[in-house]
Amino acid sequence: MPAQSxxxxxxFETPAAIYxxxxxxxxxxxxxxxxxxxxxxxxxxxxxxxxxxIVPRFSLAGGITGFCTGMSLIWWTGGxxxxxxxxxxxxxxxxxxxxxxYELTILFTAFATIGGMLFLNGLPKHYHPVLKYEHIxxxxxxxxxxxxxxxxxxxxLANTRSLLEKAGGRDIKExxx
Amino acid sequence: xxTQTASNPPAAGARKALVVGxxxxxxTACGLLVSGGHIVAMSWLVGVSYWTAIAIGMLMLIxxxxxxxxxxxxxxxxxxxxGLSAFGWLALLFLPLVLASVLGPKDIVWPWMNPxxxxxxxxxVGHDPLYLKKASFLNLNMFIGMTVFFFAxxxxxxxxLRKASFQQDKDGDVKWTFMxxxxxxxxxxxxxLTLTFASIYWIKSLEYHWFSTMYGVWFFANCVRxxxxxxxxxxxxxxxxxxxxxxxxxxHWHSIGQLMLAFTVFxxxxxxxxxxxxWNANVPEETFWYNLREINADGTANQxxxxxxxxxxxxxxFIPFLFLLSYRHKVSHGHMRFISLWILAVIFLDICYNILxxxxxxxxxxxxxxxxxxxxxxxxxxxxxxxxxxxxxxSFMSAGAKLIPIRDPRIKECLTHHx
Lengths: 177, 419
Fold this sequence. Notes:
The complex is a heterodimer. Chain A is of the alpha+beta class.
């Protein structure tokens, strides 16, 4: 018995098996748990009861920031700080500031999306308790794992183990934190 | 099969569409007595261009579907194939414009067709060096020959796509899929070139002094946006008929919504580029086209300025763009219905913006948008639309094709799109 428990890990053979197991764990009311799969499984997010990611909000904020940065950059440099007539055009016009703003909108949206995704996933992460599990590498190849964390309010070693067994999991092991 | 569904019988709908179409055409014809041939001919050009653009958009989307071996759009593709049956009728409806130009006043639509026509400064088209340089391209024989070629290409490509797809329903042979892929490979360049030249001959040449290399791309963007919006309305209609229940899931709506968003940005990119490059270069040979759509000869703003800012800039880009950013809007039927109708309305504005300011008063100012002429423009658009919807429903009801391409190799992937 490990001194400090992280949770229980169960092994599944097929995407369908872990999909249905996820539904049972979701319906049992667990909150702190996750599935490990070598590839994305369509519909697994729904089976796990996950809400839509909030990454798009980061993207939107990044896009708006980029657009405003572009506009104010052009206005500040050419229309305020060092007024300069170029090609007989006004000091500032959204017309010629638009290509810059547009490019920065895309750039900042991309940065915010990547950054927001890493942030929400808690990445980069150098250590995770499941990495100690001896067969975890097969989770990148041909096996599927379901981990329920012991910090979950519903976690109870015996009950959770029997739930995972009932859901069809094999090799149920306790993980060290 | 779909025709047995009790609610919303398509036969009654087809009759209604035909009546609406003929009524619209009849009302437009009455306009001849009120506003004269020139104005009504331009209105008719708006109506025919609008629906031809949507049919071209459907054709291009089917070709793109096949070239990418796409899966989610398999069920929708069948409805676009029915939509393609409108091309023959559109060719027929285009005919009055050609006949009027040949038999009636030569410049009833396209000013360059009349060499004696007076242009700015008291010269005539026949002595206009800018026309003479383009005369080998802009002449009646070329115009008629090219227009026949455009419609012939579209009808031929449509016939090939429809035949292969409908035949596969019966025998399930995968060779039809490969045939369609070959059609897509050579059909896409043909489609791209014909729609570009069609927009140049039919719409851009109305101001034959003007030039823009973005024109064909602008037209293409409208074609696809129109077809996607009609596609959404068809999906909603089939959903309401219970035909699409169990076939479509949220991901189909999300996918078509994403395409609509992408083409909104694409449309804005090319339309803004055209405006921006002309604005930046500030050369009178190009700017006059936008000046006509902004100010009168005395410098006061005209109605087209507000059509441009409110209708085109905000209506055609910002509103659909911001609206379609949201995932929830893309998977909500009510929201998708709203934005599809909205986009169809602003495409109408965009086509009007490109065609109607050619109509000028004695001072050379563009005639206003909100006037009696708008009635003929709307009636022509509704009239041609009624005929197109009727053609679609006739094809939809025919026994030749099932509701969805049940033997398409990708059908299973489509029905479980992202599930």
